[in-house]
Design goal:
By secondary structure, the protein is α+β, with helices and mostly antiparallel strands. It has 3 domains: 67 residues, no CATH class; 117 residues, Orthogonal Bundle (Endonuclease III, domain 1); 57 residues, no CATH class. 44% of the residues lie in helices and 7% in strands. It has a 4-stranded antiparallel sheet with strand order 1-2-3-4. Strand 1 and strand 2 form a beta hairpin. The structure holds a DNA duplex (12 and 10 nucleotides).
DNA sequence: TAGGGACCTGCC
DNA sequence: GCAGGTCCCT
């Protein structure tokens, strides 16, 4: 039994900077830290990090939240019988990316978009300074953030950003004006309401992205991003009377509040399992 | 508040 | 045609 499924974790729309270099081997970045991770390396021993191949000595404990229950789904299911009816998603974990700037811009790229294209866009915004040497150094990070507002709209459109080419540099400039990385780090101390209000004031950030950024950039695990998959799952589990209707701003709020009332600070974790179950169901053509 | 349409690109 | 949304307008 493997407590971590790297494919599920790294390709489920939580982070966008990982590739499967060879079967079972994943290469990518968390902020400035390069990682080369093997599925088989996790969870077989008491020290799950013992066999990891890393460019640096940094810990991936935080990234995979290994201090949290190994069987996250069961831990959450104990809080709600309806949630407990979800299919098992073995090895899926909520990630905890270290760099809020990376998550901020990653999710700016995700609106009305697909994974493959998102990955390309993120790489364009946050390129790897020394890929051949294993990635960026921490010192590169502020410079990369400062560079983003200098991208022109035509340039980004040519790079495949579509209509997001206009909003992303504007959002970047606003972020810098407010203090850049430190502004986001400070928001980690804010309440969810405060954080949402701040994030919603960025161009291109609506309720769903605000919650994604709160969850992944700010580590606020009360955040419940409601996309089409979570909407379908929430309707099926908790709001049968909404079948056949559409998601509105009001319902968006009600769903998040309901998850928080059931799961408290585990709401963000619960959301991930409902969301992922919906993605899997969608792939197999079921509902 | 709810409903409708545009918006880039790519894959079913 | 529609997608892991946002924004603007009835």
């Amino acid at each position: 039994m493997n407590p971590i499924d790297l494919r599920k974790c790294l390709t489920s729309g939580q982070v966008f900077r990982w590739r499967e270099a060879e079967p079972g081997v994943w290469e990518g970045y968390d902020g400035s830290q390069f990682g080369r991770l093997c599925t088989a390396s996790f969870g077989l021993q008491e020290d799950p990090l013992g066999k990891l191949t890393l460019a640096e000595s940094g810990s991936w404990h935080q990234y995979f939240r290994l201090d949290e229950p190994q069987d996250l789904q069961s831990h959450i299911a104990a809080m709600c019988p309806k949630f407990a009816t979800l299919p098992r998603q073995e090895g899926l974990r909520l990630l905890r990316p270290s760099d809020p700037v990376e998550s901020f811009f990653s999710f700016l790229c995700t609106s009305n978009n697909h994974l493959g294209r998102i990955t390309k866009m993120v790489e364009h915004l946050l390129p790897l300074a020394h890929a051949s040497e294993g990635g960026n150094t921490a010192a590169d990070e502020p410079e990369r953030l400062l560079n983003i507002p200098s991208f022109t709209e035509p340039e980004l459109r040519a790079a495949g950003f579509g209509y997001r080419a206009a909003t992303i540099p504007r959002a970047a400039q606003l972020l810098i004006n407010r203090g850049g990385r430190q502004y986001l780090l400070d928001l980690r101390q804010a309440s969810l309401r405060e954080a949402q209000a701040e994030l919603l004031s960025f161009p291109g950030v609506g309720p769903k992205l605000a919650d994604c950024i709160a969850l992944y950039a700010l580590h606020n695990t009360e955040a419940v991003p409601v996309d089409v998959h979570l909407w379908n799952g929430a309707v099926r589990l908790y709001f049968r009377e909404w079948r056949g209707t559409t998601l509105t701003a009001k319902k968006y709020q009600v769903i998040g509040d309901h998850f928080r009332s059931l799961f408290g600070s585990w709401a963000g974790h619960a959301q991930l399992f409902v969301y992922y179950a919906g993605v899997v169901a969608g792939r197999s053509g079921g509902n």
